[in-house]
Amino acid sequence: MSVAFRRESDEEHLEPRFELPIPPGPNLVTPRGLALIEARVAELEARLADPLPEEERNAVLRDARYWHARQASAQLAPAPSGETVAIGTLVTYRRDNQSRTVEIVGHDESDPATARIGFNAPLVRAMLGAELGDEIELPNGHTLTILAIALA
C-alpha cells in the first residue's frame, strides 16, 4: 500500500520529549537546596498518586525521574567558614564601580532573579576560594574585588 493512503498517527507529529539534562559534575547542595529537592520529589510523588491524563502523567514522570536522580546524587557542600568564597556564602563584590551581593548555591537552587548563583556559573567559578579584598581577573578582561563574605 502506498504511504499516501496510510493513516498517520497523531504521535508522529508530536515533538519528541527528551529527558531533562542532568548537569555534569558533582551535585553539591546547601541544606536549603537539599530541602527544596526533597520537597519537589514529595510534590511530584503526590501528583503521581492521583489519576492524571496520560500526557500529563508522562510529563510528571519525566520530572520525577530528574528530581529523583538529583536527590540520589545530592551531596551537602562542606560548611563554609566565611573566610573564603564557597558554596553557602553571601559574597559582596565590586565590578565596574558597582557593588552586588550574591548567594552561592547548588545548581538546582540557583535563581539569578533572587541573586542566588550556582557554583558552576563562570562568575562564581572565578570567585571560589577568594578571600576578602582579593582582586579577581575575569575571562572577559574585567576585574572584580571581593568586598565582603558572610555565611548565608
List the helices and strands and how they pair.
Blueprint: E1 27-29, H1 31-49, H2 54-73, E2 74-76, E3 89-95, E4 98-105, E5 116-118, H3 122-127, E6 135-137, E7 143-151
Parallel strand pairs: 1-2, 4-5
Antiparallel strand pairs: 3-4, 3-7, 6-7
What is the rounded Rg?
22 Å
> So, CATH architecture of the largest domain?
Roll
Could you tell me the mean pLDDT?
Answer: 90
Helix residue percentage = 25-40%
Strand content: 15-25%
| Total domain count | 2
Unreliable stretches (pLDDT < 50, length at least 5) are: none
Characterize the largest beta sheet: strand count, sense, and whether it forms a barrel: 5 strands, mixed
How would you describe the shape? elongated
Amino- and carboxy-terminal Cα gap: 68 Å
Question: Strand sequence of the main sheet, in spatial order?
Answer: 5-4-3-7-6
Predict the CATH topology of the largest domain: Chitinase A, domain 3
- Give the tally of β-strands: 7
The CATH homologous superfamily of the largest domain is termed: Transcription elongation factor, GreA/GreB, C-terminal domain
Pfam families: GreA_GreB
GO molecular function, one term: translation elongation factor activity
Keywords: Elongation factor, Protein biosynthesis
Domain Transcription elongation factor GreA/GreB C-terminal: 83-149
